[in-house]
Every structure is written in structure tokens, then in C-alpha cells.
Design brief:
about 200 residues; alpha/beta; 8 helices
């Protein structure tokens, strides 16, 4: 068995999937891990589907996560979380935003949007924790905070302290003023709380 941690982050372009993966990698490196990530698989421009692989541990040779080996699937969008279930290892977990953001391929009629992504994941037998990160961000006053809400959501499912990840998040905003730092602190805490509540309900 590998001692590496494999995290797959998926969503729609413009949601901050790539930024979230970068911050997770920074936190892993801050804890002394070797970390490698893919820049993008898919289309990172706004509206396209995006996935990003991150692997970290004592020694990582490749960033590519093979199907059936992801420890955590962080789904910024519900249909994308459903679509990537095959990547999870047995006993892995999906943390998913229940918000629906329909990609252009659906709007163009090339694909149908699934009726019940969360239900489909549950039917597969994989563990899933679902929460509405988009609504949380909107309640805090800025939908762009959804990225930080999602990082808060994964914070207690990592092999290092949540505070390490929070420090890396807040460093991103230090130059932009204390108000934005505080908003991101609140978004991170809200994401952690949302997952904690959802897990308690499911238990």
C-alpha cells in the first residue's frame, strides 16, 4: 500500500478548482511532504469541465491518480462529483457541493444533466458528504468564496492539521486587505462546519 494521499478535485471552469489544488499542494509541502499535481485535465476556461490531480507523501513519482485509488474526491459541482466516482478507492470519500452548474456541453444538447447526482453516488455505495457550498458563499456576500468553503470542507479529511491549510488560504489574501482575509476565514470555517454537520446527520 502506498503512503501517499491522493486527492482529485473536479468542477466547472471559473469555480477555482485549480487554485484550490494549488493551495492544497502548498499546505502539503509546508508539512514536509513531496507533492505533485496536474495542471489541468479538461478545459479550465469558464464553463468547461475541470479536474485536477494532487498526490503527496514522502516520495511522489507521478501526479496522476489511477482509477480506484483516490482517497478524497472534492466535487465543486454535483454532476462532476458523480462523473468521477470511478476514481475513488474502496473506503474513499466524496465531499460535494450540491449546487448545479450546467456546462456548455449540456446546454448544447451533447449530454444530459443527471436528474439526481447525489442519489446516484449513494447508490454506488461510496461514502458521500453533501452540502451547498455555493449558498454558503452567497450568504457571506461573494460567490467566489465558494473555493474557500470547499477547502474548509476538506480540511478535516487530510493527514495534517486544518490550521496548516487555513494558513495557506489566508496568505493568498493578505495583500488584499484584512476584510478579505476575514471573509475567507469565515468561509473556511463555514465549509468545515457544513461537512461536520452533514456527517453528524448521516451517522
Amino acid at each position: 500500500m502506498s503512503d501517499n494521499t491522493n486527492i482529485l478535485v473536479v468542477g466547472i471552469g471559473g469555480q477555482g478548482v485549480m487554485t484550490a489544488t494549488e493551495i492544497l499542494a502548498e499546505a502539503a509541502i509546508a508539512m514536509g511532504h513531496d507533492a505533485k499535481k496536474t495542471e489541468v485535465a479538461g478545459m479550465a476556461q469558464r464553463g468547461g469541465v475541470v479536474s485536477s490531480h494532487l498526490r503527496f507523501g514522502q516520495r511522489v513519482l507521478s501526479p496522476q491518480i489511477t482509477p480506484g485509488t483516490a482517497d478524497v474526491l472534492l466535487g465543486f459541482e454535483s454532476a462532476e462529483a458523480m462523473r468521477w466516482q470511478h476514481m475513488l478507492r474502496p473506503g474513499g470519500i466524496t465531499l460535494m457541493n450540491t449546487a448545479r452548474l450546467v456546462p456548455p456541453v449540456v446546454e448544447l444538447g451533447l449530454f444530459d444533466y443527471p436528474d439526481d447526482p447525489l442519489g446516484e453516488i449513494r447508490k454506488s455505495g461510496n461514502k458521500v458528504v453533501a452540502f451547498d457550498a455555493t449558498s454558503i458563499a452567497q450568504q457571506l456576500g461573494d460567490i467566489r468564496l465558494g473555493n474557500t468553503v470547499m477547502l474548509g470542507a476538506i480540511a478535516d479529511h487530510l493527514p495534517f492539521p486544518a490550521e496548516t491549510l487555513l494558513d495557506c488560504v489566508l496568505k493568498r489574501f493578505q495583500r488584499k486587505g484584512e476584510k478579505l482575509v476575514e471573509l475567507n476565514r469565515q468561509a473556511f470555517a463555514a465549509g468545515r462546519a457544513a461537512v461536520g454537520t452533514a456527517e453528524a446527520v448521516a451517522a
